[in-house]
Amino acid sequence: MGEDRRTAINFNAELHARPSIYFSGPALVEHVAIIAGSFATSKNIETQLTSAYAPDGARVQVEHHTEFTTLTKVTPLKLPVLEWPQETRLLRDFGVEPPAVEVVCRISLLVLDAPPVDLSPMLKQYGFGDTAASSIGGAAAQVCSDFLVGPGESSRVILFNAELNAYRLGRMVRRICEIETYRSMSLLGLPEARRLGPLLKGFDERLAFLTKLHLNTSPEEHKRLLSEISMLSAEVISAAAETRNRFGATAAYATIVEERIAELRETHVPGFQRFGVFVARRFKPAVRTCSATALRLDQLSHATMHLLDLLQTRIQLEIEYQNTVQIRAMADRAAVQLKIQRAVEGFSIIAISYYLLSLLKLIVEALDHAGVHLGPFAMLVSVPAVVVAVALTIFRVRHALS
């Protein structure tokens, strides 16, 4: 019961494992996602960082995911914010920076008050170029970004807050950060897809060549062909095994991105392309490329295995045909041996009858010397009797053995 209770508590704790940072008012949100392999996971890190930023009133949150770790810092600002605030370098506070860790994405999100009537001048003031913008949260806020990397090596986003309270604002900021984080994580599969492109073309060509060769190969060359197909199948399966997890993660992260975009509840801002539409149109083709590559690998794997099965079936049929020919030859030899055996049996009847008649003749001569005269008629009658008796005896023995 105690173990079941602990399990239930752990399951319930998972619902609260990654809370948002709730805040209100103008602020600069800095979000960094790094590959977690070489990153320290001390439980005291978040406490130390919070203490370090306490004089500025900043708050820091560290989250450890399966593949990556995120650091989020919220720094309050005072109005008016006439230019983009100075960004800090979060990774320095951990004593690590590239190339010690792999940075997946950096986001600098500026939270301001209600948006102006005309967005364009303010966006130009902050150095934004061709910008995507949307009303989100049921028109309670507006989000804007040109998705370009700024001087601080961060992707810059502006969130104009009109009606969001501290809780809704924290959750909305979290969604925007997750869109960028999971989008970047899902695109880790794109280099793998590009790397496999030439290999897949080569696999297709080799498979087509071996398929034609399979149709025209003589039985003597089947062993060599079987070796080549097996090698191709091993290479395809190896490539699929190396990238299966990466492409699976790409699909999973892409699903999260789509869910987070849907949760923004976007509406159109006149004169601007929607934030989520901008992301989706440039993000989905890369995801489809990874999916298509994974599908091609799977199809190639099945095709090579199918060709391998066909060749093995063909070899097995040839072996069975050879076995059938050998069995027929053995049956023919057995039939010849049976004929020879029957001929030998015929000669054996004559030979045994001859020896028995010779013995009978000796007996008759001995009886004649002893004074018992049987005459030639007795000898004449005994010849067919002996032959018939010997023949019947041999036939009965053969019948009993059969």
Characterize the structure shown.
With 402 residues, the chain is α+β, with helices and mostly antiparallel strands. It has 3 domains: 11-184, no CATH class; 189-263 and 275-325; 342-401. The chain has 8 helices and 8 strands. It has helices at 2-14, 45-53, 119-125, 166-186, 189-216, 222-263, 275-369, 376-401; strands at 27-35, 59-64, 68-76, 103-112, 132-136, 141-149, 155-161, 267-268. Helix 4 runs antiparallel to helix 6 and helix 5 runs antiparallel to helix 6 (222-263). The longest helix has 95 residues, at 275-369. The model has no long low-confidence stretch (mean pLDDT 83).
Total helical segments? 8
Provide the structure class.
Answer: alpha+beta
Strand order of the largest sheet: 2-3-1-4-7-6-5-8
Portion in strands: 5-15%
Into which percent range does the helicity of residues fall? 55-70%
Q: In one word, what is the shape?
A: rod-shaped
Largest sheet: 8 strands, mixed
| Strand tally | 8
Radius of gyration: 46 Å
SSE series: HEHEEEHEEEHHHEHH
First-residue to last-residue Cα separation: 75 Å
**Roughly what is the average pLDDT, rounded to an integer?**
83
Count of discrete domains: 3
The low-confidence runs, each spanning 5 or more residues with pLDDT under 50, are none
